[in-house]
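Lecture notes, continued. The same structure-token format from the folding unit now serves as the input rather than the output. Read the line below as a description of shape only.
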């Protein structure tokens, strides 16, 4: 069954082990996946990676990730997406993985169908480049944990964006739905949202058509919601005053080279030219990456 609407509200993944369960088949596209997993204290979940590569990204709490080859990764995690950069684990295709959370927690599984089977790896929080993008009320923070050129994957590209309350991000609106060498890459994209504060927190996401009968949505988004972007100009992502906005971007596409190349909307591209005239929002960064990597202890039976 495919989604009837690009806006996927929280709680719609009934009948699965996941709070969010977006697969290529359900999204009616070829590559990108996103699942969110909630585990109780000492809870565990085993899943096949199948034809996709995956990153286990703690949203809150830590976990142990074990794959069937015997490799094990201890993820220290974080209290929540608004508190810290997190470490993560990369899982190859054609494997089985078990995620165990001694204290419980919530975890994102970001995936992409791929061809190459790369080695399983640990990504330390200290290795995540934290970028401040834009200025003024377009200021936002980008945690480039699995950006192209930062962390090797076959097709998967994934980053986190934090937007202070009242600011706009994903602005100017941009697209990446055509293969134009050196100018634009073709990428399917998922936005997964969390909003700081109580349950009244909200934001808005706009996607406008870049072609006839293209994606057209203006969604009020709350914690746990997702928006599918197979094509179109996406942005702005608007954080309501008083409520910081987080979103996880998951992207993948058919290009022979893993690249994030975008084209700004011609009506709004001029906004970039105003950024040098304004300071970056002083609320940013919400937090930096830690300076020193946390020690990664080898699992029992593994060489140091």
């Amino acid at each position: 069954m495919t989604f009837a609407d690009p806006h996927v509200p929280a709680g719609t993944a009934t009948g699965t082990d996941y709070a969010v369960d977006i697969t290529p088949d359900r999204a009616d596209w070829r590559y990108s996946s996103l699942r969110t997993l909630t585990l109780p204290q000492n809870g565990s979940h085993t899943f096949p990676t199948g034809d996709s590569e995956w990153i286990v990204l703690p949203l809150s709490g830590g976990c142990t990730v074990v794959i069937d080859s015997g490799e094990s990764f201890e993820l220290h995690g974080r209290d929540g997406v608004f508190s810290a950069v997190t470490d993560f684990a990369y899982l190859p295709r054609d494997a089985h993985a078990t995620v165990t959370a001694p204290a419980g927690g919530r975890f994102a599984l970001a995936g992409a169908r791929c061809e190459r089977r790369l080695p399983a790896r640990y990504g330390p929080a200290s290795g995540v480049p934290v970028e401040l993008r834009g200025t003024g009320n377009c200021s936002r923070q980008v945690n480039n944990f699995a950006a192209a050129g930062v962390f090797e994957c076959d097709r998967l590209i994934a980053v986190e964006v934090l937007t202070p309350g009242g600011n706009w991000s994903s602005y100017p609106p941009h697209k990446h739905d055509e293969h134009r060498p050196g100018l634009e890459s073709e990428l399917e994209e998922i936005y997964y949202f969390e909003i700081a504060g109580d349950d009244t927190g909200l934001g808005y996401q706009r996607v406008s058509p870049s072609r006839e009968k293209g994606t057209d949505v203006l969604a009020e988004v709350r914690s746990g919601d997702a928006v599918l972007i197979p094509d179109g100009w996406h942005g702005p992502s608007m954080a309501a005053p008083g409520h910081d906005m987080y979103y996880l971007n998951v992207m993948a596409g058919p290009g022979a080279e893993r690249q994030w190349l975008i084209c700004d909307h011609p009506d709004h591209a001029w906004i970039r030219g105003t950024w040098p005239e304004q300071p970056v929002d002083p609320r940013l960064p919400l937090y930096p990456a830690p300076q020193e990597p946390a020690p990664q202890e080898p699992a029992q039976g593994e060489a140091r």
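Point for the exam: The radius of gyration is 18 Å.
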